Amino acid sequence: MLEPLTNGITRGAIYALIALGYTMVYGILGMINFAHGEVYMIGMFIGILTLGVCTSLGAMPIGIALVLAFFVAMFFAAAQGYTNERIAYRPLRHASRLAPLISAVGVSIFLQNFVMNAQSKDIVNFPRQYSAPLVSPAFVIGDARVTWLQLFIIGLSVALMVGLYLFVQRTRLGKAMRACSQDQTMAGLTGIPVDRVVSATFVIGSSLAAAAGILFAMYNTVGKFDAGYVAGLRAFTAAVLGGIGNIPGAVLGGFIIGLTEDGTVYFWGGDWKDIAAFAALMIILIFRPRGLLGERVAEKV
Amino acid sequence: MSASTATAVSRLKSAVIWFGWILLVAAPLMWMRLDYDEATRQQVVRFNSERLQWWLTELPRVLLHNGYWLLALAGAIIGWRLWKKFPQHERLNQWGDIAKRPYLAMPVTARVTTLWIVAPIAVVLLCARLGDQQRGWGMFVGIYILLAMGLNLTVGMTGLLVLGYGAFYGVGAYTFGMLHQWTGMPFWMAFAPAAVVGALIGLLLGLPSIRLRGDYLAIVTLGFGEVLRILLKNFKSVTGGDDGISIKREAMFPKFDAVIGFPDGITREASGFVIVIVLVALSIWLVRNLVHSRIGRAWIAIREDETSAAAMGIPVYRLKLLAFTLSGAWAAVAGVCFAAHQGHIVPDSFGFIESVFILSMVILGGMGTVSGPICGAAAFYLSYELLRSRVPELADYRLMVFGALMVAMMVFRPQGLLGSQQRKIEMGLAE
């Protein structure tokens, strides 16, 4: 009984990290960054490649290699997120709602096929020797074995989330982000560089997604070029579930989706796990369109 | 240096900087490759030499070899630009005086009659001239035209973004497949039940639209499409799961050995082509009338401003549901044609990528027009197929090109190839 709980929390922590990127962008621009899942997948690939470089270079402590992988992947994913925003979203900032969404779908297809062509059509393995020391069980509750890897994933995710929360609440840039999400025009009039704040949002969200990508590859032991589509949808579901644009909501939603998924696998079997997340999304949206923690906003003409 | 040269230089400069930046961002994925080292039994990274070599030597060769495509495209764009440069009245003069053109000078009823006589003859002649492969392409163009027109009712006319349209296509194919499995029903009897089932499922999907707007609705439709596909996969006893459903030969598009006037017989492709063209003609007629009716106008009003439309007394939800219902029926009819041609259907034919294809056809041609989706479907499908058969080396790169094309269309020409100026202004300035 406890096993789906611990697995679900681990998975949920990863979804929550991706969901933060969706929710931050939606909070500021009011658009669904459909290509966010692809940034997560790129982070995953670059992390695995960096670890491969570490292996090729020879003896290196595992800890240092992992830290290096996280930094390199987060850097390149952030650069990718920034590029996406500049090329595909910024020219459409003042267009109708449909235009940026379609453009984002285009970016997503492009990146997915780019990685497929440049890297591999098949699954790529996460190098075992970097996750092997963590796979041993840390402790046992009931019938559930909690591994060090799970603790590492949950710990790192929670640390990043707390870091993000403090960043948004305490720093100048975080304040500027909150201002932009309330009213972009007014924020611009008070001297906040709106364009730069938007770019910063994409950079931060993308680096969180890259971290999630490596964590997921460690947990799942493999990665594939289409991993971003599924994970992106789940994470988006999580963001909507918690109330999109709301940072604590995204975290809550991520954990709920993770638990739903592993619960479904445990009780009904793996064939149904994809349905569970979508069914949850549809039910929540029909009965509570603004999500669990989202507030009701009046529609303006 | 004049002002225009200065702008050109600065644009060139920024283009070069962007190109360099993109190369930098893509560098690790382009230059590195994972490899398994047998000696140390470890996964290591190597220089991605094969692919880089392919991109640097083979890719330019393939592009040059098929350069006439690019030249034709460039010619078309330049021609269009020049055409646009002429003022409106001069362009009309080029067409000549309307009174001197026999077809346009006829009264409308006579024109319609002529069309009804000429069009079937033209279709039969065209069909006779083509080879079986081209007939197959023509049939698929027709199927995609049906799909694009159906999707256009929601996305283009009513402004409801549906990202799971492929599922409706699958609903049609599977309704036919399952009815066939139970009763041995041939394809022509399946059109009506499939359209009804498609319409009902469209209605079901439309129900959440009462509470959701814009992006949320798009995601719900996407999720709906995925759920439907997974259900088709999981209910193995009814749908055959991943193995799909096979349709017996006699229930597919008919094939005749020898008929009077056709000594070589009529192939499955030929009959399918004609049937699909008839359906397309029917659907053009229906959609044209629908769009120019009260309903069509009300849809456009909803697309432009839902709140104002409701304030004007338009029954917004009922019309949205109608758009969903009709759009579902259209896709289901196309699905029956697909199943009747393929003879075998599997759930994965109706996934997200299919939905994206149909959506890009609508966008490419021009949302919210009647002719736009038709041209979009023809251009998109034919370029896709020709790219596959003529330039097989680039098969893996097709989706990349279409992804980039979707972004480029949104940035440079949001109204589509045939879209109206009105639609462009809406896409650019709405909200």
Number of DSSP strand runs of chain A = 4
- Alpha-beta content class of chain A: mainly alpha
Beta fraction of the residues of chain A?
under 5%
Q: What is the overall silhouette of chain B?
A: globular
Strands of chain B, total number: 4
Summarize the structure.
Chain A has 301 residues and is mainly α. Chain A has helices spanning 2-29, 36-57, 62-89, 98-118, 128-131, 148-170, 172-182, 184-189, 194-220, 227-242, 247-268, 273-287; strands at residues 124-125, 137-141, 144-147, 222-223.
List keywords for this structure.
heterodimer; A: 301 residues; mainly alpha; ABC transporter involved in vitamin B12 uptake, BtuC; two-stranded antiparallel ribbon; 74% helix; B: 431 residues; two-stranded antiparallel sheet; 19 helices; 4 strands; 4% strand
Q: How does this model look, in words?
A:
The complex is a heterodimer of chains A (301) and B (431). Helices cover 74% and strands 4% of the residues of chain A. Chain A is built from twelve helices and four strands. In chain A, strands 1-4 form a two-stranded antiparallel ribbon. Chain A has a two-stranded antiparallel sheet with strand order 2-3. In chain A, strand 2 (137-141) and strand 3 (144-147) form a beta hairpin. Chain B has a domain at 133-429: Orthogonal Bundle (ABC transporter involved in vitamin B12 uptake, BtuC), CATH 1.10.3470. Chain B is built from 19 helices and four strands. The longest helix of chain B is centred in the N-terminal third of the chain and has 29 residues, at 3-31. The model of chain B has no long low-confidence stretch (mean pLDDT 83). Classes of the chains: A mainly alpha (301), B mainly alpha (431). Chains A and B meet through helix 2, helix 3, helix 4, strand 1 and helix 10 of A and helix 1, strand 1, strand 2, helix 10 and helix 16 of B.
